[in-house]
Amino acid sequence: MPADLLKEIEEEVTLLLSDLIRIDTTNPPGNETKAAKFIAEHFRKEGLEPEVIESTKGRGSVITRLKGTGEKPNLLLLSHLDVVGASPTEWSVDPFGGVIKDGFVWGRGALDMKGMTTIEMMTMKLLKRNNVRLKGDLIMAATADEEKGGVFGANFLLQKHPEKIYAKYVLNEGGGMAIPTKEKNIYTVQTSEKGILWLKVRAKGTPGHGSKPDSADNAIMRMSRVIEKFGNHRAEVLLVPTMKRFFREIINADSNLEQLSRILDDPELSDQILDKLGKTRDDLVEEIRPRIRMTATPTIIQGGVEENVIPSECEAVFDCRMLPGQTSGQTLKEMMGLLEETDLEKLKFEKIQVQEPSESSVDTPLYRVISTVTREFEPSCGVTPIMMTGGTDSRFFRKMGSTCYGFRPLCPDLPYGELAKMMHGVDERISIQNLVFGTSLLYEIVKRFLSQ
Ligand SMILES: [Zn+2]
Prior knowledge:
The chain is of the alpha+beta class. It has helices at residues 10-22, 33-45, 114-129, 154-160, 162-165, 219-231, 241-253, 261-265, 270-278, 282-288, 328-337, 365-377, 394-399, 416-422, 432-451, and strands at residues 51-54, 60-66, 75-80, 100-101, 104-106, 138-143, 169-172, 178-180, 185-193, 195-204, 208-209, 295-303, 309-310, 313-322, 347-355, 358-359, 382-388, 403-406, 429-431.
């Protein structure tokens, strides 16, 4: 029996998101306090007791708690208030106008992630209004600064006010979008994130005149060998639990993907199998490849100042993405191992930023509730864990021992590729239908997880 959508909240949730989009929280500078206060105001009217906490002037987050009896672990509904910039000339509507048209709410943050903030707010409000007896605390936190690393938001709160924000279970962004396949939609739950190692390499040489190449030791030439080695490196294939389960779920949903089961049997065959599948499904293969191994992408190069001078220095930055289980130390060692034939003494390595990878198990009561409830709303659908190649605030919570899932339910009323492009892109929007769908699912998931 399909579950019922909460049609009655349609207008309320739509206006709430439109209002929130109109509060410009472009980061930098963020100025999230305005949005945090807006949410606090709404919650106070509902009889809730929100608290706005600033990490520094203007960088506010809002935390609200619905007390439970303590029979069950706590659950945190997490979201971020800041958004990335938008240049109005590229958009067909004002990105900060909160425009409602053609059945959609348009604007920066509609998907990433004020839409989810709104859905989480509605869930809190409804639980309060309906006097639902909770067995564990439900916390909602809408935080500053996610888009720039979370230092002034989630990480600050976890470090300074863990008693206010920490929960054993966390629901956040990163999944929830359905992948349409031949037979059914597969809803995604983000259970894993790759880690980041931004590695700066400095190559030294001896300067000389550009007219006499042999008279000098050209740092650009040295760096080009490093780039060649790193950029073409195909690291060992490693299938983490999230990816194993992902393969099983998508094979289940689409018989044309049966060949992927050979990757599970023998990961070393991955490239061969993906090359073949890529001829018909390059969209899917493009998504799989970076999720089965560490990658290293050259992203910045600087060297030389004058046309006729052979430079003695060249710098490059590599964006390395590690899988759960891999560390930055191991990764650096692996990279340096590729350069055995290069003069290592003329190269310097510096880790300019490290974010550890993270993964949560799917073998939990919360994952089972997400999976069950989603299937009640769309009986024929599939549910799969996914890994993100980028990071979210979930990594801070996983580090503290929380089980975190990214789940912002979104049925595919626009093509998958188009939805993915809108985040940080132009004409970002969410359908009113999806706001209702998302609220209905989240409300049911939270209610069932915390009250039964
Ligand atoms: Zn986001």
